[in-house]
């Protein structure tokens, strides 16, 4: 089968020019921040992913295939991992953070991978590739590692570059063909709901069936339990709704409301409560006004008292100064008197004045 342009469906894929600055300006439409390491939101997300990968898998060397601007690579490096990345987009690699740009290179996922890696990550990549190229990319990754962290969204068909969207089961089968099977004991839902850690394992049919049944059965039971709980909730809501809208016999309603159902009565009661709340709110506002007025009066009285206290203090200070000055003047006068009494003039004056005083006393007799 071919398209109108003559390209076979199995060869319909994207190229480096499909991932320019325009693509990354719209990347991650759920986020309002630019897809780059300087974004606090994206940096926090990939730091969390890197830390979880280190704690769950513990790889020393990681290759991120389809790394874009290398955010996961940079987060892994900061977590102490020897991480590198490849991407088809020259724009993405060139616009990566300078701290990690040297660990990124331009390459397609169908190019053979050099070296050996503890872990190869491939996150939201193969849905951008043609089916043929996606199959080659999986083969290349499986050739250089025993562990592949894999994620490919099974939806979002509206994204223009999603030319090969497939269900997770298809990808799991492709890995199984190469001896890689899901690690059912590791949950990678912190990355995406469909993220999987595939591990190289020599499993016979019995082991494969046992592993997947042990993984699938608990989820099947959980789904059935939740469906039963949802159905029971639906029935309870339906019963309550029917009882609410039905007109109960003998129900008495306020004459002014004239309700035709319990809903009307509840609405009337709600309106009455709202009126009561408004009245109480008005009372609270009045009390608050009175409180503020009282506070103003109290503040004014405190200010008057403070001024009186200051004036009293000033008067007391002046009185104290006067007492000190008067005491000093009195002491000075007393000293002058003592000095005068002890002088020769005082003694001579006494001798002269003594006979005159005696004559005055004799004459009064």
Give the gist of this structure:
Helix content is 56%, strand content 9%. It is of the alpha/beta class and 365 residues long. The model is unreliable at 1-6 (pLDDT under 50).
SSE layout:
Elements: H1 21-25, H2 40-56, E1 61-65, H3 71-78, E2 82-87, H4 90-94, H5 98-101, E3 104-106, E4 119-123, H6 131-143, E5 147-151, H7 168-176, E6 180-182, E7 196-200, H8 205-245, H9 262-341, H10 344-364
Parallel strand pairs: 1-2, 1-4, 2-3, 4-5
Antiparallel strand pairs: 5-7, 6-7
Number of helices: 10
Average pLDDT score: 81
Strand order of the largest sheet: 3-2-1-4-5-7-6
CATH T-level topology of the domain at 9-202: Rossmann fold
CATH C-level of the domain at 9-202 = Alpha Beta
Morphology? elongated
Largest sheet: 7 strands, mixed
Query: Architecture of the domain at 9-202, CATH level 2?
Result: 3-Layer(aba) Sandwich
Order of helices and strands: HHEHEHHEEHEHEEHHH
Strand residue content: 5-15%
